[in-house]
Amino acid sequence: MTTSTTHESEEAVKGVLDRLQDTWQAGDADAVSQIYTDDATLIMTGVFLNGREEIRQFMAAAFAGALAGSRPHNVPRLIRRINDDTVVVISDIGILLAGQDQVADGEHRIATWTITRLADGWRVAAYHNCPVP
Fold first, then answer.
1. In a domain, 111, yes or no
2. How many independent structural domains does the chain possess?
3. Which first-to-last residue range defines the signal peptide (predicted)?
4. Domain that holds residue 65
5. For each successive 10 residues of the chain (133 residues), what is the average pLDDT?
6. 131 in a structural domain
């Protein structure tokens, strides 16, 4: 694979993360869920979601409740191409609740994203985060 192709896949993956940021800030659970594959998994402390519909339902409830007006903070540390169609991203993440300008102490996380290319574009196939001490 050429350097330009590697660069193109990194840019496409960053585009997925940017779309997630935008759709989250809009509080649009349907649009957030479309960033994931049909069979995606999402794992967070105390949460295991299996499939796009479970992700959509979870996000809809969150946007109607505790995450109303929130926005994600996501800074990729590492983008590693596994093959032409799969990329793993390691990010420093957190959630800025309504009115916050920084992630609250104790709420910083590190995340692993598996992002894959499908016929209709790049999608998140798996996501996992855990607290950072």
1. yes
2. 1
3. none
4. 3-79+86-120
5. 63 93 97 98 96 98 96 95 95 95 93 96 97 87
6. no
Q: Which residue type does 110 have?
A: I
**CB neighbour burial string for 71-101, b if at least 16 within 10 angstroms, e if fewer:** bbbbebeebeeeeeeebebebebbbbeeeee
In a domain, 94, yes or no: yes
| Tokens 């957190």 sit on residue | 94
Is residue 77 within 8 A of residue 64, CB to CB? The reply is no
Report which DSSP code applies to 43: E
Whole-model pTM: value is 0.91
Query: What is the Cα–Cα distance from 25 to 88, expressed in whole angstroms?
Result: 24
Residue 66 and residue 63: Cα distance in Å, rounded? 7
| Collapsed DSSP state (helix, strand, coil) of residue 60 | helix
DSSP state of 70: -
CA distance 85 to 125: 11
Q: Considering the domain boundaries, does residue 65 fall inside one?
A: yes
Closest-CA residue to 123 (of 50, 20, 21): 20
